[in-house]
Amino acid sequence: MTANDQLAAHKDDAHARKRALEPDGSFIVQAPAGSGKTGLLVYRILRLLAVSQQPESVLAITFTRKATREMRERLVDLLRRAEQNDPAKDEFDQQGLDLAAAALAQDKLQGWALLDTPQRIQIQTIDALSLRLVAAMPWLSRLGAQPSASDDAQSLYQGAIEQFLVDELLGDEVDPQIQWLLTELDFNYMRMGKLFSSMLSKRDQWLRHLLSGSLVELRPELEQAWQTLALTHTQQLAEAAGSGLIEKLVPLVEYAHVNLVEADKLPADLVDAGLPEYSQDRAQSDEQEGNAVFWRVVSIILLTNSNGLRKRLDKSMGFPPEGKAEKEQLNAILAELDGDDFFLEQIAEYKLIPLRTFSDYDWEQLQSLEHVLKKLAAYLQLQFRYRGKSDHSEVTQRANLALQELDDPTDLSLKLDYQINHILVDEFQDTSFSQIALLKRLMLGWSSEVDQGSKTVFLVGDPMQSIYRFREADVGLFLDVWNNDTTRVFEHQTIEPLSLSRNFRSSGSMVDWFNTTFVQSFPKLDNSLTGAVRYAHATTHRDDKDPSCVEYLLAGDKQEEATLAVATARAALAKDDKESVAILVRSRTHLKDILPLLDSAGVRYQGLDLAPLSVEPAVIDVLHLTRALSRLDDRIAWLALLRGPWVGISLSDIQTLCADSKQSVIAQLQEANLNSISAHAGERVHNFRVLMRTALGQAQQVDLDVLVKWTWQQLGGMHTQFGLSDASMELVFERISEHQSGGELISLKKLEKALESLYAVPDIAQAAPPRLTITTIHKSKGLEFDTVILPGLGQQSKSDDKDLLMWAEWQAKGSGSSVESQLLLAPLAYGEESPHYQYLRNLESNRGANERSRLLYVAATRAAKSLILTANLKADQETGEPKQPPKTSLLHELWAAHSERFEFNSAPLLVTENEADAEVPKFNTLTRLPHGFSRATGIDIDWRSNIPSMTRNLTKDPEQPSEEDDELEFAWAGEVAIIVGNLIHQWFEHLDLGELRCLPEEPDYHHPLLASWRSALQAAGLDDQQKSYALRRLLKAVRQVQQDANAEFIFADRSSTKTELGVAAYIDGALRRFSIDRTFEDDGVVWIVDHKTTDTRERNLEQFADTQVQERHKKQLEAYGRLMRQIDARPIQLAVYFPLLKQLRSWSFSD
Predict the structure, then answer these.
(1) Residues 836, 805: contact at Cβ < 8 Å?
(2) Most exposed residue of 84, 247, 759, 1079, measured as fewest CB within 10 angstroms of its CB?
(3) Cα 477 to Cα 429: distance, rounded to the nearest angstrom
């Protein structure tokens, strides 16, 4: 950008900022990274307050509580400073103080007392606003009393799915539509559960279409939408190609078409359609069906399967050896098109556009899915009512429903006790369809002509930072509203687009780098359908230039890259003791090798949603307590409590008190003679059993989370948090609350799954937070740092799962100059996918690729002064140069602009003497509450009382178990064997043959599998000797399975394999649930395999295995067979696999 261009951009930016503060206009503002978006919103709120009759008439909507808090704090701070006549820090600050002074003048005139009642300033998240609307209109919203919106909706979805399947499959007659779907999914219930859950989470997008009428009624509209898509793209291609290229292509396409038909190389729809004569006149009209076949053939002869230009022409493309002249002509065209990325993108997309309407089979699938999904949505409504909770999407939909039911738009002001005249929306690029609908209904009755200046909308965002597609955000909505004059999304509003360009955050060199890099990686044109967003050049008021502001580092493997990232972080921290540094990653898994290196180097850091709570000892203790209070027969949970910090007795004492594995632990404790163990241990066990007796007496009389929390407090849980903040523990109890009903735990597996999604909340009382921040790119949005390090750029993203139904909405030109919303819809088919589904699947892939560019932009623009890029790639064996990065990696987005700058690191890495000599960390010895610890309250339970805070110091118990106490004995070794068996079952649940072959026979200490096992054994309360014994058993299982020919068969890679298959049945009038270890189909036979981790010293292993099956396991497997027979008519083979014995026993199931 030249100096003149820079000056012009600054003038445009200044004009846009001035225009945005005019209170009588409606605007949509594109505010790129670092442009002061929050400040602009705050200034406009102040400007509107100065001309409003009531502060509540101004409504600002955000998408996060953090943004709400920041905006409110800035606004109140300006008001207070204006009242105190504080001096301005700079010109921009002076503008804010002037606006605040004007707002205070109106405040005084109207008697608002805003500084005493700042809550009158309406700044809310979109979810909070929806809840407020629903609460104000309980009858119209059909939700009744104040609803509770859960942040963890998966448990609600799973509950609805399970009830749906139980009712449908265990009834007198299975619904034919359900039966069809089960057949399509090969009776894979786990797969079905995932697909259903995904569809329920996105129902705000598809349910409104299904409820607007039956698909039979909508069929003409749906087919017209696909035809409109084809015609629109045909016209775009003709315009992109130009008449000159088309004239050259016409005879070559005709030549190739004849040869392809003769060689049977064309798809059936192209053969049936023939090849009408291409008409340039028709290309400029809306009737272009005849030209559609032409462009499809063009795409075949120009592009390879991977959408690159062809390098070679042969008869498979319609150019046999005798057609030399035609080949030369087409090669000339290929050379001419080389580098024309826009045209190539257009023709590549055109390859997948279906030219025919839905087949009858497609319609059968759509109608079956319509029936199933509507019923599933109804079951979700029952789940919401049963649980007294809903998800945020439901609240938004109900708020929409309530607003839709209002007889008169002015009724809204009566419901809310105030009238909304001005709406401001932050982060508008992250809006979903249901949220747009909510905004439109809030503005119902507004008219640009009648309400000119008195009612306004102000939408601020940056489409280049739209990265929340997984939360149903659609950047296409921003693009459509940007063109509101044409698209008429807000039909009765005149919305003026404004662009900001000035970056106040980053240095001049960084801004130059952003412009150079992202103009190449971003699409060239906006496209609301594909989510393509053009790059908008940034300008800066700073002229500081540092050519070395960006570093490009390549490593040969992940460990070396982690070392590079840590070394650069330490160097950045040492460079300036006041500057902030951040390590930002695309996925938390990319930190696996980095965090241990930081810990061993003693580098302090703060993590945002970084440390998973599910592996924290304090949370594991609470989970054991929850299990124990829910199930008296959960022996592992009760033993873990005795071994944990609240009781902390030795394993030999546990063996003395609880030797009978057939009787519950608590029953044995109540009858135990405590004189048989040491005095200190006896005292702790006495206190424990008295307390637990009281807690169990309240079971099912109070909510489970209340019971667990009270018991945890009484046991001393507040003093065994091991550094976790109180807020973190509250999150755990909230999840327990969401997974209980009537005092009972709904599903332990679902609770454990929900806990895996929780992350530790930092202690806000921490005096001096570390200067190094580690978080994900998504969590870093809105933050800034002096130095940003981006490791893991070469890691590719995992592919998205297929949905049962795919859809897309877009604004297409209708009759005349009108623009109409078009719905593209296609069902999933197992086997060969329909061309409609393939197109939408490819469209989703393109949307993902466009979002990757934006994700990298968000990450890079967090940097104020310097950016460090790291990746690991393999080197080409011949040239030594790095290989191309994976297409789904962030590095791929950088490669076109900076591939020559990335070189393998050759400089020695700084390693301190302490790090070089560092030993593998050892586990801490058992930590217990100090001897003589007294409970905070008596035995009487006050479920509403708060337990007073006590000292949190932990000590090692004076009565440490001796080596003699911990001597390995077969009696307690049996308890360890239970733990080992559980871990082997968990391993088998995710094991396949490929993973088994890649696993070394002797995994080293740091191998992920061993690391996870060590963590689990530690959580079970085993000491070093018992852990060593357990690990030997686990490693034996690994070796035995690797050497066992039976494992080759059992763990073979089959698409039909299901692990931990859940089956439910009514037995003796009660619903019983079973979990089958492994099922698969082999040569038309359904196998049911049960894993048994039994070990023995018997020499005759074959005889031992036979006896075990006959005496212990056959009855269980036969029951599984009877359950499977109800849903599958194929032959069934039952099997028991003993991995530690290398024995497999199988037999045919007979009815």
Answers:
(1) no
(2) 84
(3) 7
Residue 920: pLDDT over 60: no
Amino acid identity, residue 836?
Answer: H
**Cα(651)–Cα(638) distance, rounded to whole angstroms?**
13
Q: How many Å apart are CA 565 and CA 571, to the nearest integer?
A: 10
CA dihedral 1120, 1125, 1131, 1132 (to 10 degrees): 0
List the one residue out of 916, 238, 297 whose CA is nearest residue 600. Answer: 916
Q: What is the pLDDT of residue 1148?
A: 93
Burial class for 996, CB neighbours closer than 10 Å (0-12, 13-18, 19+): middle
The Cα 93–Cα 16 span in angstroms is 18
Instruction: Give the DSSP letter string of 237-264.
Output: HHHHHHHHHHHHHHHHHHHHHHHHHHTT
pLDDT recorded at residue 854: 96
| Contacts of 531 by beta carbon, 8 Å cutoff, 6+ apart | 466, 469, 474, 475, 476, 846, 847, 850, 851
Q: What's the average model confidence in pLDDT over 978-995? A: 74
Residue 175 pairs in a beta bridge with none
* Beta strands 740-741 and 744-745, pairing class: antiparallel
Find all residues with CB under 8 Å of 554, minimum gap 6, and list them: 870, 871, 872, 873, 882, 902, 903, 904, 905
The backbone torsions φ and ψ at residue 200, rounded to the nearest 5 degrees and listed phi first, read -65, -35
Q: Is residue 810 scored above 90 in pLDDT?
A: no
Of 485, 732, 498, the residue nearest 623 (C-alpha): 732
Average pLDDT of the chain to the nearest whole number? 82
N-term to C-term CA, the chain: 80
Edge-first strand listing for the sheet containing 1132-1138: 1058-1067, 1070-1082, 1085-1091, 1132-1138, 1143-1148
Segment 219-234 shows an average pLDDT of 86
User: Which DSSP helix (H) or strand (E) runs through 553?
Assistant: strand 550-555
Q: For the chain, give the percent of residues with pLDDT over 90.
A: 28
* Chain centre to alpha carbon of residue 285: 44
> Which pLDDT value is given to residue 952?
29
State phi, psi for 458 to the nearest 5 degrees: -135, 110
Q: Which two tokens stand for residue 770?
A: 């570390």
735-754 pLDDT per residue, tens: 898 888 777 888 888 888 88
What confidence tier does 240 reach under pLDDT thresholds 50, 70, 90?
confident
Structure tokens at 393: 């999407």
Q: pLDDT class for 760, splitting at 50, 70, 90?
A: confident
Pull the structure tokens for residue 462: 């940056």
CA dist 864 and 1066 (Å) reads: 63
Going by their DSSP bridges, the two strands 1070-1082 and 1085-1091 should be labelled as antiparallel
pLDDT, tens digit, 9 for 90 and up, residues 446-483: 765 555 668 999 999 999 999 998 888 899 999 999 99
Q: Which of 728, 748, 737 is nearest to 627 (CA)?
A: 748
- 3-class DSSP state of 26: strand
Torsion angles phi and psi, residue 1058, rounded to 5 = -130, 135
Higher pLDDT, 991 or 998: 991
Spatial separation of the C-alpha atoms in residues 616 and 724, rounded to whole Å:
8
> CA 380 to CA 156: how far, in whole Å?
7
- What average pLDDT does this structure show over 80-107? 94
Of 615, 622, 606, 610, whose CA–CA distance to 729 is shortest? 622
Contact 187, 1127 (CB under 8 A): yes
Mean pLDDT lowest among 97-101, 574-578, 598-602: 598-602
Task: Report d(CA 970, CA 538) in Å as an integer.
Answer: 71
Helix (H), strand (E) at residue 1072: strand 1070-1082
pLDDT tens for each residue of 367-412: 888 888 999 999 998 888 877 778 888 888 888 777 776 655 556 6
Strand, coil or helix: 667: helix
Alpha helices in 124-202 (DSSP H): 126-136, 138-141, 154-169, 176-184, 189-201
Q: Are the CB atoms for 720 and 645 separated by under 8 Å? A: yes
